[in-house]
């Protein structure tokens, strides 16, 4: 599950980097997606580094944040 | 961190609980005390209660701006080092934060390892190493009453410490090491090895802030002189 999440994170991060535009809606999307991706990356790295345990709650939160980022970035 | 070294306390402010949780885990592993807040109100209260050694601040919070926390911290008697967490496209917030005295910023999505490395770096450069003499003569540049202590990363005016930000110190170091030399704004940015976080127009703001801290009269500068149509220079040592 973690490998799959890492792959999705990489794909969505690339989409996030290519999100251009300065209108309010795009700015909001960029901000919210950035937050969701930051949450995923923080949790994934912490679990991979053994700093946090891969509890069911944490894994569910990673899945939820990925879903949020996917919905925002398409 | 050695057992004899006093534990540093870091206030982490981010409305994403997962980010706070991961940063807490990494920082605690490194020996820091950590308090995590998810709102501006809680952050302001915890700042007052804890007087942390360092802050990691998200700009956009559900009940306001992390910049308010930064502003409150800089108005305090003891300047608190801070790293801002910003989203892509929030350049204005980033500029305001740096002008308010933030030491660094990191753009989301970031690696928590990078945040911890930056926290370590900011704490290291904003405190004098244990045991270091406050006046290491070989490393102090004097211009009149102004002393720039390169090794200790300190500035004193008439023997009294001036509380400058990391950016202001970098500027002052360049001026002090090249007193009498005129710098254009572009040359100053080059000399600072700026990564693009400081712009020519915000450079003026940093210099004005620096003048307020080191000049006897900021409106009639004695140390950092404006060379009209060119840039700035420091009076000869």
Structural overview:
The complex is a heterodimer of chains A (74) and B (237). Chain A has 74 residues and is mainly α. Chain A contains three helices and no strands. Chain A has helices at residues 2-17, 24-48, 56-73. In chain A, helix 2 runs antiparallel to helix 3 (56-73). The model of chain B is unreliable at 129-138 (pLDDT under 50). Chain B has eight helices and 14 strands. Chain B has a five-stranded parallel beta sheet with strand order 2-1-3-6-7, sandwiched between helices. By secondary structure, chain B is of the alpha/beta class. Chain B is elongated. The chains are: A mainly alpha (74), B alpha/beta (237). The A-B interface holds A 13, 16-17, 19, 22, 26-27, 30-31, 34-43, 45-46, 49, 51-52, 58, 61-62, 65 and B 15-16, 18-19, 21-23, 25-26, 29, 60, 85, 87-90, 107-113.
**Total strands of chain B:** 14
Tell how many strands the DSSP assignment of chain A holds. Answer: 0
What is the largest interface, and how many residues per chain? A-B, 28 and 23 residues
Oligomer status:
heterodimer
Largest sheet of chain B: 5 strands, parallel
Estimated radius of gyration of chain B: 18 Å
N-to-C order of helices and strands of chain A:
HHH
Identify low-pLDDT runs of chain A. none
> How does the overall form of chain A come out from the CA principal axes?
elongated
Indicate the overall shape of chain B.
elongated
Mean pLDDT of chain A: 91
How would you spell out the order of helices and strands of chain B?
A: EHEHEEEHEHEHEEEEHEHHEE
- CA-to-CA gap between the ends of chain B? 39 Å
Strand content of chain B: 15-25%
- What's the mean pLDDT score of chain B? 82
User: Stretches of chain B where pLDDT falls below 50 for ≥5 residues?
Assistant: 129-138
């Amino acid at each position: 599950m973690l490998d799959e999440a890492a792959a999705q994170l990489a794909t969505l991060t690339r989409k996030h980097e290519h999100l251009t535009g300065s209108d309010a809606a795009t700015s909001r999307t960029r901000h919210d997606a950035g937050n969701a991706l930051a949450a995923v990356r923080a949790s994934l790295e912490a679990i991979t580094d053994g700093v946090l345990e891969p509890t069911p709650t944490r894994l569910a939160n990673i899945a939820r944040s990925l879903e949020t980022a996917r919905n925002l970035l398409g | 961190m050695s057992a004899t070294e006093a534990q540093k306390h870091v206030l982490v402010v981010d409305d994403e609980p997962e980010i706070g949780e991961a940063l807490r885990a990494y920082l605690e592993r490194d020996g820091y005390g950590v308090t995590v807040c998810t709102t501006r109100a809680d952050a302001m209260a915890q700042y007052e209660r804890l007087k942390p050694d360092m802050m990691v601040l998200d700009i956009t919070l559900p009940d306001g701006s992390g910049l308010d926390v930064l502003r409150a911290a800089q108005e305090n008697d003891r300047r608190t080092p801070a790293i801002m967490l910003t989203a892509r496209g929030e350049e204005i917030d980033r500029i305001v934060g740096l002008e308010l005295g933030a030491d660094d910023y990191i753009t989301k999505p970031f690696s928590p390892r990078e945040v911890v490395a930056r926290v370590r770096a900011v704490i290291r450069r904003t405190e004098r190493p244990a045991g270091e003499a406050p006046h290491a003569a070989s490393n102090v540049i004097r211009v009149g009453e102004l002393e720039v202590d390169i090794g200790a990363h300190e500035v004193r005016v008439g023997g009294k410490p001036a509380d400058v930000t990391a950016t202001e110190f970098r500027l002052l170091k360049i001026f002090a090491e090249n007193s009498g030399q005129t710098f254009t704004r572009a040359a100053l940015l080059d000399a600072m090895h700026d990564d693009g976080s400081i712009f020519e127009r915000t450079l003026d703001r940093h210099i004005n802030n620096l003048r307020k801290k080191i000049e006897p009269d900021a409106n009639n500068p004695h140390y950092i002189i404006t060379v009209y149509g060119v840039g700035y220079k420091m009076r000869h040592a």
